[in-house]
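A reminder before we start the practical. When you read a complex entry, don't treat the lines as separate problems. The point of joint prediction is that each chain is placed relative to the others, so the output describes one connected object in space. Small molecules and nucleic acid strands, if listed, are placed in the same frame. In the example below there are two entries. Take a minute to note the order of the lines before looking further.
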Amino acid sequence: MSQDQALAEFLLRMGDNTLILGHRTSEWCGHGPALEEDIALANTALDLIGQTQMWLGLAAEVQGQGKTADDLAFLRDAWEFRNLLLVEMPNGDFGQTLMRQFLFDAWHVLQLRALTSSSDARVAAIAAKAVKEATYHLDRSAETVIGLGDGTEESHARMQAALYYLYPYVGEMFLSDAVDAALVEAGIAPDPASLRAEFDATLARVLGEATLTLPAARRARGGGRDGKMHTEHLGHLLTTMQWMQRAYPGATW
Amino acid sequence: MYAQMVKSTGKGVMSRADMSPEDAAFQDRIDAGEKIEPKDWMPEGYRKTLIRQIGQHAHSEIVGQLPEGNWITRAPTLERKAILLAKVQDEAGHGLYLYGAAETLGISRDEMTRMLLDGRMKYSSIFNYPTLTWADMGAVGWLVDGAAIMNQVPLQRTSFGPYSRAMIRICKEESFHQRQGFDIMMKMAKGTPQQKAMAQDALNRFWFPSLMMFGPSDKDSVHSAQSMAWRIKMNTNDELRQKFVDQTVPQADYLGLRVPDENLKWNADKGGYDFSEPDWEEFFEVLKGNGPCNVDRLAARNAAWDNGAWVRDGLMAHAEKKRARKTAAE
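Here is the predicted structure of the whole assembly.
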C-alpha cells in the first residue's frame, strides 16, 4: 500500500464517520424532545456535514480520480464505506442518540486533537477547525448523558440500556491495521490504541457523574472502518441518502 | 405571513368616545409610533390578540420544520443538505424568539404548546400541504418564505416592542431562505427535462396554497380593523396578496415556468396583475383540520412531545438534585 492509498483510506474513515453520524443526527430534525434540543441536534448535524465536505473533499483529491466529495458520499456502495459501526447504529430514543454521540465525541476530540499536529498540513488544518466543534459537541453530549443518567428512574434506566447496547461498538475505535501503521510511520495520524487510556478516563468521569455502570467487556464489534462487515442498518441509511443521485444520474442540484 | 384569521375583540375599532382615559392614552402612543413594552399598560384585547397572533406564528415555525425536514435525509448533495439543515434550524430558532415574545404577555411556552397539540391554537394552512419532490424545497423557499416575508417586513414596525424586535431578526434570515429556494428552482428549471417537470409540478401544487397564506379578503373584517388600529397588522390581506403576485410572476417567467392560473393577466390600469382567487372552501377545510397533512403534522408534533417527556423530566430532576446538593453543601 502506497502512502497516498493509506492516506485516502484514512480520509474516508474520517469523512464517513462524520457523514453517517451527521445523517443519523439529521433524522431528528423537527422531532426532538424540546425546541432547544432540536436546535442543538440540527447544529451538531450541520457541523458534521461540514466536516464531511472537508474530509471527503480531501479524500477525492488524494485519490486523484477526478471525483468530488459528493461522488464519494452518494455513489459508493455499503462495502466501500469506512465508518465505525457505532455511527451507523439507529437513533433509537433520544437517550440512545445522545449516548452514541457522547461515545463518538469522546473519541473524536482525542483523534482530532492529535491530528492538529499531523505531518500532513491539509489534515492538520481540517482537524484544527473540526476540533473546536467536536469539543463543543462533547461538552454538550456529556452534560446530557450526566443529566439523564442522574435524572429520574426512567431516564436512568434508558441511559443504562443505551450504554449496554452501544458499548460493544466502542472497541473498534482503537483497532489498528496496515493503514494505521502506514499513517503512524508517516506521522500523519496517531496510533488508535494510544487514545484508549484518555478515552477510558473521560468515560469513567462522565459515567460516574451520570451514575451509570460500564457494562462488562464484551467482544468488540469491528468491520466498519475496514469495510469488511457493516451492520444491516447502513444499507437502509444509504438507500435514503443516496436515492436522488442514484435516481437522476448526472443531474446537478 | 404565518398568522391567518387572527381574531381580535370582534367589536371593530373602538371609537374615541367609547375609550377610557387609559385606552385613549394607549391609542395615542400607538398613533405616535411609540413601541409598547411588556410592562406598559395595555388593553386586554390587545394582549389577547397578540398572544393569538404571535403564538400562531411561533407554532407555524415549529410545524413548518416538518415538510422541509421531510427532505433533509434525501437532500441530493452535501451542500444542499447543509443549507436545508441550517434553514430548518433557523426556523426552530424563530419559534424560540416568538415564543419568547409571547411569554412577555403572560403565557408560557408549555401552555401554548399544549394548545397547539390539542388543536386549540392554529398554525399556517400552508404546512398542511405535502412536500413530494426535491423541487418542493425550492418552491417552499421561493413561494412560502416569499409570502411570509411580504407580511413580516412591515411587521418589523409593529407596535409591540418584543414582537417587532423578533421580526427584525427573523426577516434577516428569511430573505436568505427565499434566495436559497429560488436558487434551487433555478437549478431545476434549467436542468434535465425531469428536473424541469418537477419544478413545474411544485409550482402547480404550491401556487394557490401560497396565495391562501395571506388569508381571505379582510377588507370588511372587524378583527383586522382593530388589529390595524393597534398596529399589530400593517396591511390588508388583499394588498399583500397583490404585492406577492406582482413580485412572483416575473420570477416565474424568468425561470421559464408557467403560473397555473388561466386568468393571470397584466392590468396596466392598476399597475398589477389580475389573478384568480384561490379556492376558499379548500382553505376553510384545511383550517378545520381537513387538509392533506393536518392529521400527520399534529401527530408528529404530539409524538415528539410525548416521546420527549422522559427527557424533559429527567433533565429537570437532575437540575433539581444539583440544586439540592449545592444547598446542602452551603
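Discuss with your neighbour: Chain A touches chain B through 52 residues (CB under 8 Å). What might explain this?
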